[in-house]
Design brief:
This is Trk system potassium uptake protein TrkA. It comes from Clostridium niameyense. With 455 residues, the chain is an alpha/beta fold. Among the domains are: 119 residues, NAD(P)-binding Rossmann-like Domain (Rossmann fold, 3-Layer(aba) Sandwich); 92 residues, Rossmann fold; 88 residues, 2-Layer Sandwich (Alpha-Beta Plaits). Strands 3-2-1-4-5-6 form a six-stranded parallel beta sheet, sandwiched between helices. The protein has a six-stranded parallel beta sheet with strand order 14-13-12-15-16-17, sandwiched between helices. The chain has a five-stranded antiparallel beta sheet with strand order 7-8-11-9-10. Strand 5, helix 5 and strand 6 form a beta-alpha-beta unit. Helix 6 crosses helix 9. The radius of gyration is 23 Å and the shape is globular.
Length: 455
């Protein structure tokens, strides 16, 4: 596919990297030669220095042949204008990043009037993901499938966890209709069998019905309780969207923000929160705000270093549910090594959503990708497909299907039933099918069949 990305910031670069790796013809446009240098040096793509709203620049990028134009500059208005111009000159599909809360209530109208095919708000998406993490304590990540019916949850095994040295068979997860679907050990992806033995520091991914996951986590000793008190540092857009979500469950919210003028704005836009002007990395301030009594601590400043420092202090103060926003990918390993497990990356959330959309465009006649998440440090993917009659293995028991190595059919959702499949189960038309795989660029359920054959 011919894809044009306008804006070579953090999100633009991440998209260019992943989309070019999937075999797409990618062109990046940015006004800054400095911003383009990293992409030129590291990626197999074409770069154009210029304004993505200008006709001559769009024509140089062959916008008339573009399958998708993605506008991710730092200006919402410029992104909308880029998409409008791109459609006028022949682009088939357009995607715009629109972040300002003032536009939040107008997105449906903007999509229609400007003929934008997809609008994404990274901060709002990040807030939704954080709200899921708050509901389940002592976990690293929470992803949702089948309109929230199914959850994929990861957690780190600690040295005092009773499952160390036990096998999956010993744990009896079938009683809870839970499947251990993959394990990260020493930065490797493992697909566990019933005899798999858990070790300290394994990162485990389980899938099942949302309610069952909560019960199973309690069984594992990861006690769950209602969130009553939340402390957030950083008063940006994610905080705005998040407080609206948290407020629905009745939690008391405190927000620490350095900038005094920003605090005044927060007082008006977030009347449900207690706004504190101060430095969220200062130990004395955090202690004075009763940090150890908090049910959740969320670090959302614009500086990764501040988020990491504050999160470490929260962990050392006994807060079990600590969530940290990280922008720089190379910090992920550092964060993991110091014990911060729940990490949010708005740019990766954005990239996942857009990659899912583009893979869906490649496969219009096939099984549509409903959800896509990169897991295990981006070494594997969890995908949800809507099954239609193009599937070669419809109504055939899974035990009779030859599936590629590195693929697990983790769950089948049929109407209101959630099936953790055995060899006798099968896929029907209309099912939602969730797979875990370390195979690259899967766009269709048929891609997981060995040699395209069934048996």
């Amino acid at each position: 596919m011919h894809i044009i990305i306008i804006g070579d910031g953090k999100v633009g670069y991440t998209l260019a990297k992943h989309l070019s790796q999937e075999g797409n013809d990618v062109i990046v446009i940015d006004k800054s030669a400095e911003a383009l240098k990293k992409a030129i040096d590291n990626l197999d793509i074409m770069c154009i220095k210029g304004n993505g709203t200008r006709v001559n620049v769009l024509k140089e990028a062959e916008v008339n042949n573009a399958d998708v134009v993605i506008a991710v500059t730092n200006s919402d208005e410029r992104n909308m204008l880029c998409c409008l111009a791109a459609k006028k000159f022949g682009a088939k599909h357009t995607i715009a990043r629109i972040r300002d809360p003032e536009y939040a209530e107008e997105l449906t109208m903007l999509k229609k009037e400007l003929d934008i095919d997809m609008i994404i708000n990274p901060e709002k998406e990040a807030a939704l993901e954080i709200s899921q993490l708050i509901k389940l304590q002592r976990v690293s990540s929470v992803e949702s499938f089948a309109q929230g019916k199914v959850g994929l949850v990861s957690f780190r095994i600690k040295e005092d966890d009773f499952i160390i040295g036990k096998s999956i068979r010993d744990i009896n997860s079938e009683k809870y209709s839970i499947l251990f679907c993959t394990v990260e050990r020493d930065d490797k992806v493992l697909m566990p069998t019933a005899d798999f033995i858990f070790k300290n520091n394994d990162k485990v991914y389980i899938i099942g019905k949302q309610d069952n996951i909560s019960v199973f986590l309690k069984y594992l000793g990861k006690n769950q309780k209602k969130i009553k008190r939340v402390l957030i540092i950083g008063g940006g857009r994610i905080t705005y969207y998040l407080t609206k979500l948290i407020n629905k469950v009745g939690a008391k919210i405190k927000i620490i923000e350095k900038n005094y003028n920003k605090c005044k704005e927060l007082n008006e836009s977030i009347p449900e929160g207690i706004i504190i002007n101060g430095d969220g990395t200062e130990q004395e301030l955090l202690e004075s705000e009763n940090l150890p009594e908090m049910d959740a601590f969320i670090a959302l400043t614009d500086r990764d270093e501040e988020n990491i420092v504050a999160s470490l202090f929260a962990l050392n103060s006994g807060v079990h549910n600590v969530i940290t926003k990280i922008t720089r990918v190379n910090y992920n390993r550092i964060v993991k090594n110091v014990g911060v497990e729940s990490v949010i990356s708005p740019k990766m959330i954005t990239a996942n959503k857009i990659i899912r959309y583009i893979r869906g465009l490649k496969n219009k006649k096939g099984n549509f990708i409903e959800n896509l998440y990169k897991i295990v440090g981006e070494q594997a993917e969890a995908l949800e497909f809507s099954a239609n009659d193009t599937i070669k293995c419809l109504n055939i028991p899974l035990k009779d299907i030859k599936i590629k190595k590195g693929v697990l059919i983790a769950a089948i959702v049929r109407n209101s039933d959630i099936i953790i499949p055995s060899g006798n189960d099968y896929i029907q038309k209309g099912d939602s099918v969730i797979i875990i795989t370390d195979i690259k660029n899967v766009t269709d359920i048929n891609d997981i069949l060995e040699g395209g054959s069934l048996i």
